Amino acid sequence: MLQLFTTDFFLLALGAGIALACVCGPLGCFIIWRRMSFFGDTLAHSALLGIALGLATNSDPQLSIVISGLLLAFLLSILEKNSLVSTDTLLGILAHSTLAIGVVFLALTDNIRVNIEAYLFGDMLTISRSNLLWIAGISLTVGLTLYRFWNDFLSITVHAELAEIEGVNVQRMRLLLIILTALAISVALKIVGVLLITSLLIIPPATARRFAKTPEKMAFFAIIIGILAVIAGLVGAFELDTPVGPTIVVCATFLFALSYLKTGHITTGSSRSRT
What we know:
Layout: H1 8-33, H2 37-56, H3 61-82, H4 87-108, H5 116-121, H6 129-148, H7 150-158, H8 160-165, H9 170-192, H10 197-208, H11 215-240, H12 244-263, H13 268-273
Helix pairs in contact: 1-6, 1-9, 1-10, 1-11, 2-3, 2-4, 2-9, 2-10, 3-9, 6-9, 10-11, 10-12, 11-12
């Protein structure tokens, strides 16, 4: 077991997972408070289309994922205000259509041979040093932005109208939050894959919500829970010979279930008061 923690590929995967957990914790809190989980799913599903376009144009797939995610974030913010259909319907259409287009595009391109399963469920053990630098760089950018605008994000979450009166640009902050989500998802793809990204954004904050009495404590606990899930998932995957990404999500889910057994039932009213 101790030898496992000294191998290069394990340390690279661990470093990437911890960097992602430090970002997904606080960001996931806002996704839960603002009920934006469907936004996360839509951005995650669109990542496969970005991969397909990147491979087709012989560009860096990681960069194409970021660009496609940012473009979709801007598109979502525009369509949300001007669409003739409800937001959840729009998100459902974009989520599944972009995922399907990406898969079909990859299947129709003869000169592209890619392991789609790795993108759907993650391929954490193939993370290189350059991948780690990329993940750390974007995670640091997202984390610093969250820290800088934390109070503004809280203001538009608690009471958007009051925040606007106080001088906060609500629309700009909403767009920025979607952009940060897109960036986090772009780096999470390598770790847990398209189908599991949102779970890493949602489950640790949902678990932390059981223990935290302030937004800041909830964000901190979400980071700790995310890191524990990453470590347990990595070790468990090696011991049980299971896929790393899904194993991390299973460990996060186990911690969530354990929190219910530990703290007991909390009413809806008290849960809302925490946000």
